[in-house]
Specification:
GO cellular component, one term: precatalytic spliceosome
CATH architecture: 2-Layer Sandwich
CATH topology: Alpha-Beta Plaits
Distance between the termini: 22 Å
Order of helices and strands: HEHEEHEEEEE
GO molecular function: RNA binding
Helix content: 10-25%
GO biological process, one term: mRNA splicing, via spliceosome
Number of domains: 1
Mean pLDDT: 78
CATH class: Alpha Beta
Structural class: alpha+beta
CATH superfamily: RRM (RNA recognition motif) domain
Protein name: RRM domain-containing protein
Strand content: 25-35%
Number of strands: 8
Keywords: RNA-binding
Radius of gyration: 15 Å
Shape: globular
Length: 138
Amino acid sequence: SVTKEIQRINAGEIERNISISGSWHAQYKDSPYIFIGNIPFDLTEGDIITIFSQYGEVLDLQLVRNKETGESKGFAFLRYEDQKSTILAVDNLNNYTLLGRTLRVDHASAETKDGEKRTGMNAAPPLLRGYYFFIFFF
């Protein structure tokens, strides 16, 4: 299948340590975070980690929930240990249909209100309050 071929190519590029500088992914080279949207509402954090851990070690997942009901709002931010895992997840899971919903998976970066970049492997996770999010869909 096309997905398996993309996975094979991506894995080969990582093994050969091919630079991403010529790719659109390069602008996110310092961000270990991805945005996941249109998540089926009945998926748990464990379900999401299971799905996304096939592309690398997941260090953190913030599944956004309704404060009053505790129900999922259908989107999350996930942090990988290795930034290259974000490329694999974006390439392989964006537009993937899961339980009748088409996932939106993309790189995430955030800026403070003052325009300060919040990227890097040691950056705090994207926050919902006090920061503007720039999620890019192509």
